Amino acid sequence: MTTAYLTIDDIPSKLTPSIVDFLNKKQIVPVMFCWCERINYYRQNAIYALKHGILIQNHSLTHPHFSELSFEQAVEEIEKAEEVLESLYKEAGVKRPFKMFRFPFGDKGGKNEAALQEYLKEHGFTQLDQSNILPAEYEKDGAQKNQGDCYDTKWTFDYAEWRVRPNSGFSIEDSISKANARFGAPTSDVPESGAAPAGAKAEQLILIHDHEDTENMYKGYFETLINALLARGVRFVKPVVR
After folding, report:
1. How many structural domains compose the chain?
2. In this structure, is residue 242 part of a structural domain?
3. Is 215 part of a structural domain of the chain?
4. Which of 36, 79, 115, 198 is the most exposed place for a label (fewest CB within 10 A)?
5. Residue 117 has pLDDT above 90, yes or no
6. Digit-coded pLDDT (tens) for 63-93
7. In a domain, 241, yes or no
8. Residues 6+ positions from 98 with CB-CB distance below 8 Å
9. Residue 22's CATH number
10. Count of CB atoms situated within 10 Å of the CB of 74
11. What confidence tens digit (pLDDT) does each residue in 48-70 have?
């Protein structure tokens, strides 16, 4: 068995409620990172997620490359997104247990990286418990060696299903091949529950996206990819911060 956190980027979309329902059925609690300007179109879908036990966290307001921003612009992206998130939690009647941030594209800010890490630390952002995630697991997906010491949330495995687009040459089968390379071939049928045993700590931090464009290319992609992990012995840990 491999234990993991599940993180989902770029919510909300029209798919969000169906993703939430699927994960609730599988007893999987993810962290959803919110592209906050999308709240203008799918606010009630984000509220639905919160009311059904999902954690929603900061993925910036407009989803820019942070290395292309000044420090002041980067902070504005984070703070305006925070305003949106606080209003969502308030409307849903749910207490936000902690604050997390993920840089879009994994772009940690270029020349402003150190200053942004200090900003996140000073403003109460935290990261998921890393105590059982080896630095080498981050390195396999291109993250820096000291990610466990940072105040943003990276990942150890990206399904890359966001690449499934017309004429891209990348398919859902290619995403599943990535799972094979990291977690091996299927070892069992898909279980009813995807939850890790009580007390388990995560060894991986998995990334998948909430994208209507991917759904248009491969109907049911989200369920397919989660079930592929479950069949390979991956079980999901409830989010716990360090």
Report:
1. 1
2. no
3. yes
4. 198
5. yes
6. 999 999 999 999 999 999 999 999 999 999 9
7. no
8. 126, 241
9. 3.20.20.370
10. 23
11. 999 999 999 999 999 999 999 99
Is residue 100 within 8 Å of 125, Cβ to Cβ?
yes
Q: Report whether 128 contacts 102 (CB < 8 A).
A: no
What gap in Å lies between CA 136 and CA 35, rounded to an integer? 29
In a domain, residue 16? The reply is yes
The answer to pTM > 0.90 is: yes
How much is the pLDDT for 242?
85
Share of the chain above pLDDT 70, in %: 99
Domain of residue 36: give its range.
2-236
Residue that is written with structure tokens 């980067």 in the block: 74
